[in-house]
Structures are given as C-alpha cells and as structure tokens.
Amino acid sequence: MATTETTYHVPVLLRESVDGLEVKPGGVYVDVTFGGGGHSKEILRRLNGTGRLFGFDQDADVLANVAALNAENFTFERGNFRYLRNFLRYEGVSEVDGVLADLGVSSHHFDSEERGFSFRFEGKLDMRMNRGGGQTAADVVNTYDEQRLADIFWHYGELRQSRRLAKALVAARSQAPIQTVEQFLLAVRPLLGRDEKKLLPQVFQALRIEVNGELEALSQMLSQAVELLKPGGRLSVITYHSLEDRLVKNLMRTGNVQGVAEQDFFGRKTSPLRVVNSKVIVADAEEQARNPRSRSAKLRIAEKVAEQ
C-alpha cells in the first residue's frame, strides 16, 4: 500500500509555520524537511503559477508523498539539507523568499519497527534517516570506545548516567555484538531505574543524532539559509529538543549558530536577521491533544534584514 501523508506524518504547527513565511504568490521557497508533504502542500496552495517550491528529504520512504503532490512548480531533491546551497545553485537559484524546516523525527520513523528509532519495537538497531549508506546505531554501539560513547550520551542526550551507560554497553558487546533494539535495552535499562520513561527517549535521541550527524547538518543548513534569503525573506523553523533549538535561537539572534554577535564601528551588535516572534510559538491545546508530537514543538521565525 502506498504511503500517504496522513499515515506518514501529521504536520506540526502547519498554519503558524507557513503563515510565518508570509508567502508571496510568485516567490521562491524551500521546505528542507519534506516528510509527508503537509507543509509543502500548504505553501504550494499559496503560490501562483510563477511561484516555485523546492523540497528536501534524505529518506526514500517519502518518494510516494512526492509523487502524490503532482505539482509542476515543485522540485524535489532526495538528499540531506546540508547541501541546500549546492542544489539550489544547480537549479539556477541564488536567492529565495523563504525557508521552512520541521526538524526532528517524523511519526513515520517512530512507528516503523524496521527503522530502529523507537524503543517500543523489536528490530535492528539502525536509526539512519538515509538507509542508502553510512553507519548504523549498531555500528556506533559496537565500535566506538567507551569515552566516545560516554561523550555522545552526555552531549546529545544530556544524560548524567553517560559514563555508566557507555561502560555497560562495552561490557555487553564483549559478550556478543549488540545488533537489535532488544539487545540494546537489555544493556541500558538496569541503569535507568524509575526514570526509564523519561531517560530512554534521551538515550535514543543521543544515538540518533550521532548516527545522522544531525547537529552538524543543521548548523550548515541554517548558515546557508541566511545567505540565500533575500532581504525581507523569512526563515521558519520548528524544533523539538533543546540542542537544535539552541542552534536556531542563536542563529536568529546573532546570524550564526555559535551565538556570537558581530559589532559595527560604534560597538553596536548587528545581525543579518530580525526575530519576528519574540515569544516562541507552541501548539495550542487542541493540536496537542490531536497530535502528541506537537507537545514538544517550538516555532521560531526570523526575517532577513536589508544590508545597511
């Protein structure tokens, strides 16, 4: 059965994030996280015949959703959004009116047993967004040394048990390779205790970020988006955890993910972006009840300022 938008992924903060772009009917826009196509469909609905939309996603599972869109003014690139600038240059596009990103993992990934993103199912410990290549979560768990594993759980999962988790995994893999979600859980669960419900998502998040190089890719995409936006162009980004939200917030406030603001001749802080919503936008109670994924979502919007 073909995957549909409804079963693949329910778009989060759909109206708010697309409204944030202030879509111009004849403008050029990019949805760097195509997924189920919900945000792209809404952007296309607001474009006229001269407007263009480009979509990115590295997961082959979205191709059915791309085909279902059936829009002549939509161009899809199956690849990582870290290549945003290169792909647009190939398409002859040097600047855009808006970029939208819905970060994190789609409900489709969490609900797919064979993808290994969720601790709810047995299956291979994979976690790759792009199954065409690259290391799996099992590769990370079985080949990284103890210190490197501990660093992953500390930096990407913000887990106080990081060293003990790493030690337990090294001990477990010395008996037999850890290839499945079930084997991984057997090794880490005894360390989580009563906080398991809270901590397991952080453990899996840490592994997933490492496997997919998520923070590096996000940093590259955000920097390129700033360069590509026209003056007055909008950047609309939905985040789901503090690590990616920090990068987005830094970029929108200072123009770089490090959060270091430049200063002009008079010592005044400058930034190529203007934050549109001083208070982060979150899903209302109705959406949170309808779509649990939206409960941790935060929307930030910024506008490219004209050069002085």
User: Distance between the terminal alpha carbons, to the nearest Å?
Assistant: 54 Å
Average pLDDT works out at 90
Extended strand count:
9
Largest sheet: 7 strands, mixed
Percent of residues in β-strands: 15-25%
Provide the CATH topology of the largest domain. Answer: Rossmann fold
For this structure, what is the CATH homologous superfamily of the largest domain?
A: Vaccinia Virus protein VP39
Query: From N to C, what is the helix and strand string?
Result: HHEHEHEHEHHHHHHHEHEEEHE
Number of helices: 14
Spatial order of the strands forming the largest sheet: 3-2-1-4-5-9-8
Shape: globular
The domain tally reads 2
- CATH top level assignment of the largest domain: Alpha Beta
Give an overview of the whole structure:
This protein is an alpha/beta fold. The chain folds into 2 domains: 5-102 and 214-304, Rossmann fold (3-Layer(aba) Sandwich), CATH 3.40.50; 118-212, Putative methyltransferase TM0872, insert domain (DNA polymerase, domain 1, Orthogonal Bundle). Helices cover 42% and strands 15% of the residues. It has a 7-stranded mixed sheet, with helices on both faces. A two-stranded antiparallel ribbon has the order 6-7. Helix 8 (146-155) crosses helix 11. The longest helix has 17 residues, at 196-212.
Quick structural gist:
The chain is of the alpha/beta class. It is 42% helix and 15% strand.
